[in-house]
Amino acid sequence: MNSSINIRTHYRACNLCEAICGLEIKVNENNEILTINGDKNDPFSRGHICPKAVGLKDIYLDENRLKQPVRRTETGWETISWNEAFDEVASKLKSIQNQHGKNAVGVYQGNPSVHNSGTLLTAPAFLRALGTKNRFSATSADQLPHHFVAWQMFGHPLLLPIPDIDRTDFMLIIGANPLASNGSLMTVPDVAHRLKAIQKRGGKFVVIDPRKTETAKIADQHLFIKPATDVYLLLAILNEVLNTKEFLHYDQLNITPEEVLLLKSAIESYTPQAVSSITGMASETIEILVNELLTAKSSVVYGRMGVSVQAFGGVCQWLINCINIFTGNMDSEGGAMFPQPAFDLLGRAKKGENYFNRYQSAVRKLPEFDGELPVSAMAEDILAGGIKNLITVCGNPVLSTSNGTQLDTALEGLDYMVSVDIYINETTRHANIILPPTTGLEVAHYDIAFHNLAVRNTAKYTQPLFEKDNNQRHDWEIFEEIKNRLITGEGSDIPAPKNPEEKLAMAIQYGPYGKDGLTLQKLKDNPHGEDLGALRPCLKEKLLTDNQEININSELIMQDLERVKINFEKLLKATKSTDFDLQLIGRRHLRSNNSWMHNSERLMKGQNRCTLMIHPETAANRGIVNLEKVQIESRVGRVEIVVEITDEIMPNVVSIPHGFGHARRGVQLDVATAHAGVSLNDLTDELLIDELTGNAAFTGVPVRILRGIK
Ligand code: SF4
Q1: Which of 39, 48, 49 to mutate to test the pocket of ligand 1 (most atoms within 8 A of CB)?
Q2: Is pLDDT at 1 greater than 50 in this prediction?
Q3: Residue 674 burial by CB count (10 A; 0-12/13-18/19+): exposed, middle or buried?
Q4: By CB atoms within 10 Å of each CB, which of 17, 115, 155, 608 scores lowest?
């Protein structure tokens, strides 16, 4: 008898991170997963996967995963029916809004929301039905500066330039570790091979980071930089580029000499010599980098978390775009380019829209962007009483946003809380009701968000591997059910939820490749995915600014240069603080996925990863030895952590990975709590933000080490 006869093969896109790798999953007749491998016929990922892909099986089988709604009672969690849960949630939302106004309900959406086509297609209508201005998401703890700058320069928050990594000859990576993240705001499966391919074709890539990261270790060169000083390095690079007139190629982008002069005069004081002591980088090194950017056949600068989540995240991203423009590498092969996804999110976008500061947060008056307030304001606005009911959607802000302890306290005091989530975790343990959607292998998926950020144009549709049980609900069913109850009067028939697949089919058929015959059915017939080709220059057609030109000298950004200048002068005069004398940075591991995936034993086993990295000199100065447990303290909190002495980090800088801190009361994650670690965000400070965009500043948090724990 042939034992392979009842084995079926399923192809899908992994939606755990931004890389959208193709998976090949073998399942036997008992629906047991036998293997999860990379799909070699996926035109984008070409067989690559990372260790997290196998974690999909662990999530599917996880005994801690919820499949039916649960309600918190005085004696613990009780399982309730979906109808009871939907009725209670809708009635609580209505009653709180009737009593205190629409904004009394807050919403927080976590990262997985954008990795799920069901949520992306149905949550907007649910949010409209809710009508609250108190919306928050992981965006303002992550990539808000990119969106802000894209809007200011190109006219839309989603017009994000992506490095053309497959054709570039020189790539400068600042504050990013794609070998651990698998690419971020750069959807790039198999990034290690793609980076090595630059070297194989005679090019090179350089990494600048306060830590010698996994990516830095395979780079042609790694350069240390003091945390949160990237803005000065970038200013010096741009200044040098603009001074090298013969290499300027800005005319094809309709940038006038007057605009260039204005820009030059705004930044001319930031020479490589002037910024050297502040950044910790030799002026000659900066000049060599500029020469490499200018003389390579094509080059691109890419800056991610380390550059975004700091006090000048917006200005940093603007400078990166300017450097790519003025080295002649914006919207051209090997430079920074704009993908053309099959589901075109910009298809109906209008020119000249305002996305900024149409209202503000209650306490600190932080500005809204694209319908969301900065998440650093969420806890204080709850504590001030303006938000009485919170809905969290696939997010764990207690671990992933600044000053998690403050948020913990705030959630404790809410009148009511609902979480759409599969786990009872550090955040959802505060909920009154948890509504668990299907996940991973049980869902259909088309990556609406990340094809928009991809280094190659492809399209892929994934069918569910396993049918959901009768007692489970998809995310889109949950949003539709609550929305329908919110907009339907008491006693009315509740309309059945509408499957959003119809919207997906329409968007693809009438999208940019529809005329070439691309349909949802065609994608269903080819589960490996369709290759739609390399990125093509297209910025001129895509620009959505008022005058359809690139806005180089955005007024808001130019004004923020004053804040950059004040800080520069302060840093020049600064002597070492005696209070908080170290700078804290985060880090990420390939086996972690922000604050989740920690409940998979196969991903968590091995050496303790939640350590405090510290340079040998910094440790020796304090008499600290390797593996010693120390207390580390910031303005907002204190944690105890084991020390890892390593010369892979700069002196006077310390690093803790994010996503840990599972030892909180009531968390029901068996594996995660066995590897609890401490939360980086019990030290990060909600008052540290990029004042231009409102994004959280996690990089360079002032801390000090206290001794005395054995
Ligand atoms: S890199 Fe990301 S998309 Fe690819 S297998 Fe790993 S988690 Fe999944």
Answers
A1: 49
A2: no
A3: middle
A4: 608
- Tell me the C-alpha to C-alpha distance, in Å, between residue 621 and each of 616, 617, 628: 9, 6, 14
Atom of ligand 1 nearest to the CA of 23: 5
For residues 667 and 554, membership in a common domain is answered with no
* Listed residues 493, 525, 558: the one ending a domain: 558
Q: Write the CB contacts of 268 (distance below 8 Å, at least 6 apart in sequence).
A: 239
**Rounded to the nearest 5 degrees, what angle is found at the Cα of 186, between the Cα atoms of 181 and 189?**
65
In whole angstroms, give the CA distance from residue 272 to residue 287. Answer: 7
**554 and 590 both lie in a single domain:** no
Residue numbers of the domain that contains 630: 575-706
Domain count of the fold of the chain: 3
Residue type, 591: R
Same domain? 174 vs 45: no
CA of 111 to the centre of ligand 1 (A): 15
Task: Note the pLDDT tens digit of each residue in 78-104.
Answer: 999 999 999 999 999 999 999 999 999
300 and 221 within one domain: yes
The Cα 142–Cα 181 span in angstroms is 13
**Predicted local distance difference test score (pLDDT) of residue 710:** 43
| End residue of a domain, out of 526, 558, 590 | 558
Kindly give the distance from the C-alpha atom of residue 503 to the centroid of ligand 1, in angstroms, as a whole number. 26
Measuring from each residue's beta carbon to the nearest atom of ligand 1, which residues come in under 6 Å? 14, 16-17, 19-21, 49-50, 52-53, 182, 189
Q: Which residues pair with 458 in a beta bridge?
A: 531
Q: Quick one: pLDDT band at residue 197, thresholds 50, 70, 90?
A: very high
Domain match, 280 and 173 both: yes
Tell which one of 14, 15, 177, 447 to mutate to probe ligand 1, the residue whose CB is within 8 A of the most ligand atoms.
14
315, part of any domain: yes
pLDDT in tens, 456-500: 999 999 999 999 999 999 999 999 999 999 998 766 788 888 899
244 and 182 within one domain: yes
Ligand 1 pocket test: pick from 12, 17, 181 the residue with the most ligand atoms within 8 Å of its Cβ: 17
CA of 21 to the centre of ligand 1 (A): 5
Residue 409 has pLDDT above 80, yes or no: yes
Q: Atom of ligand 1 at shortest distance to CA of 182?
A: 1
Q: Is residue 352 one of the residues assigned to a domain?
A: no
pLDDT at 574 over 90: no
Look up the pTM and report it.
0.97
Q: Which residue has the tokens 């020479």?
A: 271
* Separation between Cα atoms, residue 552 and residue 255, nearest integer Å: 8
Q: Tell me how far the alpha carbon of residue 588 lies from the centroid of ligand 1, in angstroms.
A: 14
CA–CA distances in Å: residue 44 to residues 164, 189, 190, 199: 14, 7, 9, 20
Q: DSSP H helical segments within 590-710, as ranges?
A: 601-604, 616-621, 670-674
Distance, CA of 334 to chain centre: 24
- The torsion angles phi and psi of 480, rounded to 5 degrees, stand at -65, -40
CATH classification at residue 200: 3.40.228.10
Give distance in angstroms: CA of 636 to centre of ligand 1.
34
